[in-house]
Every structure is written in structure tokens, then in C-alpha cells.
Amino acid sequence: MIELGCVFDLPGKRRQIEQLEHETADPELWQDPPRAQQLLRRLSQLRELVTEWETLSQQARDLLEFRVLASEDLELASEVEREAAELAERVRQLELRLLLNGQYDGHDAILAVHAGTGGVDAQDWAEMLLRMYLRWAQRAGFAAEVVDLLEGEEAGIKSATVEVRGPYAYGYLKGEAGTHRLVRLSPFDAAHRRHTSFALVEVLPLVEEDDDVEIRDEDIRIDTFRASGHGGQHVNKTESAVRITHLPTGIVVTCQNERSQIQNRETAMKILKARLLELKIRQRQEEQARLKGKPVVTGWGNRIRSYVLHPYTMVTDHRTEVSTPNIQAVLEGEIDPFIEAYLHQQAAESEETSNASGN
């Protein structure tokens, strides 16, 4: 606990809280609502972290006292060991959250899955990934809602968009962006041959208001159409689905899962803002990488993970080299080891870059 206290920097966090409290008390701040909301969000996150740390510290002190009393009581000693293990896990989770210090890490997220090369196998694979992330969100206590879904003709899905809401949803999920590869004996091949399928995962920060994103009315074209898929008579007979095209960038977003055209339009606008913000973030990263002489691979060229079901079973992350043979558990949403390894890797690389700059 003492070691983590140095990493946590409790006095520094309290100073940040005082500074933010001072800033949010300024009446002029509310003339800039997006900045005010950003500061309030950061203030709330810091207060939550400090409160949790203080609670963990008190529990650790209590356990040390009980440990002395438990030296001659086997039943009490067993209870102390159990609580110590639970406390250690909570400390580990807090330490992990400290790595989520990016500008948008604390925000909700938009996660999109797209079937790639591989025909119906790829569409089935995209649906498997969608299910994996929905299961993960449920395990992690996040609210996940599918806001757009395009089904495949024979099986699976062509694409899906999910809104994931909860503290640090984007921070945890951002490392999942990239191409996911599946190798298996195809259930859609009469000869039952081995097939390789690909699906692309996109992760975007969901920001209601942000100075970085401005959408002018003249820059968008809005089209309506009849929703497809299993939506019942209502969606098939009315033009409730919405497609928004951002003319300057060519970005197209659709939403057809809501029954109301107004609701679909609002959701599509949120997704468009997220895509435009992600575009700006990527452009900044590419510029920074260019200055450092490092390439940045995005989209389909960024293969991050392989899932092999035949001739052996193994899931391997190609960035961190973390792997597990328990592919069924992974497909049921147990992807935390991959998420945590990626966050630690990014933190280590950031520290190396910082040290190099300091030298």
C-alpha cells in the first residue's frame, strides 16, 4: 500500500481537486459549457479516486491490526487472508485506473464491429465479436446498447455499433481497436475446411460537446430509408432509419434500431461526432509519430489479435504477446488480461518517451 501511495500521489491529487474546485466556482466558466462539463467530469473522477484510495488505506490499516489478533485464531486468520486478497485485487484495479489518464479516457465509448474478408464466415465472426464485447460490458458493469445493426444475408452480421456507457469505458476499450483474425474449421463449408476470417473493431470516445468537433448544417446530408432486419411491421413500413453523410470527410453513419426517426437521427449525430473526434485524435497521433519517425498503422492494416480454434486453441495479442489457450472464456467476454497488458504497455512506452525527452 505504501508503494502504491507513491504512485497514486495523494497530495498531488488533492491539489488538483482544490484547483478544479477554484476553477468551477468561477461564474465566467459557465459561459463555456463544454469546458465547464469537462472540468466537472475531471473533478468528479478525482474525488472518486481519492475517496477510494482513502477507503482502501483505512481497510489496510484495519487488516494489519486484525492480523496481529489472528496469530492465535485460525478462523480469524483465514478471514483476514480472504479480505487481504480482496483488498489486493481492489488495489490492483485502482492502479489500473490510474493508467487511464488520457484526455478522453473517462468518457463513454462507441464500439463498432465490421465484417471483413471471409464472406459468411467473416460475418459470423463479427457477430461472435459483438457478443464477446457485450458479455465483457456486462461483466464490467457497463451499460451496452446496440444502436445500429446490419445483418448478413445468410448468417452473422455485416456491421454493428454499440454505445458503451460507464466510467472510463473509452479508456478500457480503446486498445481493442484494430483487426481481429479468426482461424477455424468453417461451419459454413460443406467440406469443413479451415478458413481465416477478419473483422475490424473501431472504438470512439463519446463526447456530447467538444471544442474539437464542429458540425455545420451545410456540411451534412441526411437521408431517411426503411429499416432492414427483424424490426417488425413498424420499421419495415416507415422510413425511420437515418443516414448522415459528412460531406467534407465523406464519413457516413447510419442508425435504424430506434422506432422513431428523431431518435435515430439523434443517435446518428452522436456517432458522427464520435467519428469526427476520433479522426482528429488519429491525425494528431500520426503527426506526433511523423515527428518521431515512427509509423502509425490504423484500420485493417492494424492486426492486433488472433483467435485460433484449429489445429489448436489459442488467443494471442500481437502487441503485448499475451496469450491464452482458453478461447471459449475469451469469447465469453474474459478479455481483461489483454486490456490490462495493453494499458501497462502504453504506460511504459509513454514513460520511456518522457524520460527520453527529459534527457
Number of helices: 10
| Quaternary structure annotation | single chain
Structural Rg: 23 Å
Main sheet attributes: strand count, strand direction, barrel closure: 8 strands, mixed
Summarize the amount of helix as a percent range: 40-55%
CATH class label of the domain at 108-208 and 318-358: Alpha Beta
On the 0 to 100 scale, the average pLDDT is: 85
What is the CATH-assigned architecture of the domain at 108-208 and 318-358?
2-Layer Sandwich
Q: Strand share of the residues?
A: 15-25%
Envelope shape: globular
CATH topology of the domain at 108-208 and 318-358: the name is: Alpha-Beta Plaits
Structural class based on helices, strands and sheet pairing: alpha+beta
Order of helices and strands: HHHHEHEEHEEEHEEHEEEHH
Low-confidence stretches: 1-6, 230-235
Count of extended strands? 11
How are strands sequenced across the largest beta sheet?
A: 2-3-1-5-4-9-10-11
Terminal Cα separation, in Å? 31 Å
